[in-house]
Amino acid sequence: MQESTYVPASEPVEVTENRRSPRKNVKLYAAVGAVVAAGAAALVFLLHSPAPLYPVPMNGKYGFIDSSARLVVPAQFDDARAFSGGFAAVSSQGKWGYIDAGGRLAVAPQYDIADAFSNGMAMVGLGGKLGYIGTDGRFLINPQYQAAGAFGDDLAPVEIGGRWGYINRSGKMAIDPQFDDAGAFSLGLAPVRFGDQYGYINTSGRLVINPRFHAAGRFSEGLAAVRTDAKFGYIDKSGAMAIAPQFDSAGDFSNGLAPVAVGNRFGYINKRGEFLINPRFDQVGSFVDGLAPVWLNSHEFYVEKSGKYIWRSAN
After folding, report:
1. Number of structural domains, the chain?
2. With DSSP H G I counted as helix, E B as strand and the rest as coil, what are the percentages for the chain, rounded to 5?
3. Beta bridge mates, 141
4. 3-class SS of residue 253
5. For residue 187, is it within any domain?
6. What is the CATH number of the domain that holds 271?
7. 3-state secondary structure of 171
8. If 284 and its partner were Cys, which of 86, 197, 246, 266 is the partner (CB 3.0–4.6 Å)?
9. pLDDT (tens place) for every residue of the chain, 315 residues total
10. β-strand pairing of 275-281 with 283-284
11. Count of CB atoms within 10 A of residue 142's CB?
12. Could you tell me how far CA 233 lies from the centroid of its own chain?
């Protein structure tokens, strides 16, 4: 887990956690903007598409395609993020809201920051503070945190007084603030930092993998990316090295593949550490339902797990 870099699911990925400080000027799953006008109500959405949808840029706006590269939701948003938990964050006139899996507006744009949904809750920001909403857009935990992360295993990391701990879904402190850094729980474990070393705790707050990594990501599909010295590899839930450190950057596994970099080129490996898509891209994103966004020579593409292109941006 690196310094609180916040990387959209549809954008280039490295080892990073779903954490966000509104004081950092980074592109979201959300971005800080101005007040939305009544024009948000005029946004047009198509009705229902049973296929998974993917955000794409078109003529300065964002829409969504399906897995056959057919445009399903017209390009009308200022920005858009990948679907998670049945919703995708979209931006209009500087504010963020959510559309549902059918492309319908589910939560009107109103937030300065809008994270992906996880466990039925999403972290959002208003006025420099972070809180959590439900799928109807109503606050379940009011904005109050300067820095926080996504819910996983019914717990979310929050920073209080310069130390990190975890709250439960009611907003009560479940693991007292005691860590120098903390990431989201996944598969019952979360990366935390003591000084300059990362280890992993369980949902009771007990240390189960001793701090010995220079960076650590969340567990996904049974493995987590970690950095020892200058290279990234992957450990299993016992803390044993499953894929030897050899990559210059690494991300979460999804759909059986993980994005990694060798030098400044990105590709995808399987759980044996073998390249299934050779490193040839400038930057890459994670696979979602069989497709992943990749960037090459200023163009954005979507590729299948075979490496075949199914969509390319016009510019």
Report:
1. 1
2. 0, 55, 45
3. 132
4. coil
5. no
6. 2.40.10.480
7. coil
8. 266
9. 333 322 333 333 333 344 554 433 222 222 222 222 223 323 333 334 347 999 999 999 999 999 999 999 999 999 999 999 999 999 999 999 999 998 999 999 999 999 999 889 999 999 999 999 999 999 999 999 999 999 999 999 999 999 999 999 999 999 999 999 999 999 999 999 999 999 999 999 999 999 999 999 999 999 999 999 999 999 999 999 999 999 999 999 999 999 999 999 999 999 999 999 999 999 999 999 999 999 999 999 999 999 999 999 986
10. unpaired
11. 12
12. 20
Residue 21, domain member (yes or no): no
DSSP code of residue 240: -
Domain that holds residue 244: 223-315
Q: How many residues does the structure list for the chain?
A: 315
Structure tokens at 3: 């310094």
Q: What is the DSSP letter of 42?
A: G
Position 244 in a domain: yes
Q: Coil, helix or strand for 262?
A: strand
Residue 315 placed within a domain = yes
Specify the pTM.
Answer: 0.84
